[in-house]
Fold this protein.
Amino acid sequence: MTLKQVLMTTAAAGLLAACDTPLDFDLRDLASGFDTSKSVENLPNRPKADNRGIISYPNYQVAVAEKDDTIVTIAKRLGLTSDALAKFNGIEVDVPLRKGELIALPTRVAEPSAATGAAQSGPIQPSTVDVTAIATSALDRAGPQETASAQASQPAQTGLEPVRHKVKRGETLFSISRIYNVPVRSISDWNSLGPELSVREGQFLLVPQSGQAAPAPQPTATPAPGAGSDTPVPPSATLPLPDETPSVPVAAANVPKAPDIGTPTTKASTFAYPVQGSIIRAYASGRNEGIDISVPAGTSVKAAGTGSVAAVTTDTSGSAIVVVKHDDGLLTVYTNLEGLTVAKGASVSKGQTIGKVRAGDPSFLHFEVRRGLTSVDPADFLP
């Protein structure tokens, strides 16, 4: 399984909030105690677009789709070629767009200004510059005519430029969230992804940044030349060796007999294998977040335990993903599926069929056990 597929399945667990409550992408209600609240601090809201639906940053511009917009209507509104705009965003020209969806522009159009209905002129500038102070100082220095002219214009918008991420094959919103350590909800809100949270290969996403600088590396003290550890004094070549005094034998310690604690018992397994086959790739945290079980295509996949379906989604290649929430904050993730027999919110019992293994070379099921967003070795929960 490729790393991208692993990230995809890793992130799928992020869908779980609860079955009876709205999705909580910070996952602060899970019993594991996992808390992503720090990661949402200082994240800005998406800036308002001008009348054309344009948001401009120094390095790129995006168009905000209106209701019933397509690539054709956006291209016509901005004077661009629809085919080039569609190809740049990995989408067909006539696909209906969600209201608020962002479309990346391959070339810059006119900058926002009062003429385009923008409250402020020019692209959004980095907020490290105090634009208000600069504008005030300029007004103080200006003459009466210059002052009147300056008051008619507004200072440029400020804000940290988001990362523009192009979705690659096998990625999901959740794997992208983990790459940038930005909550799924923030990325979804910025890009108006809708309730399905689906992304497509070739799509550009804006990932907001908090503006908090990474901690500077701490310098390591280096001793000056010649200031190392003291050299031990070598043994003398002129003095005789000290007399050797035989040591008194030490009596054997009286070690108490170990208590009889009986035969160790093996804890009953929590889950059952979802399919019966050979494990062709074992769990390795950071490289393979679950196990890959080789089985023929079309093999029925069973729920590993009783629970409820917290998420059903697909990756960009069309492979289905199912996440089941169990007691004690445990989650099981099943990927490389097709022919699903369950839907989100459904209750499942241990051993119930939830889908079939998708064809592949080789064909296999990828199975994960998670506590919150943290993967754990499935072997610890299987017989």
In short: The CA atoms of residues 170 and 316 lie 5 Å apart. The mean pLDDT is 76. The radius of gyration is 31 Å. The chain is about 15% helix and 20% strand.
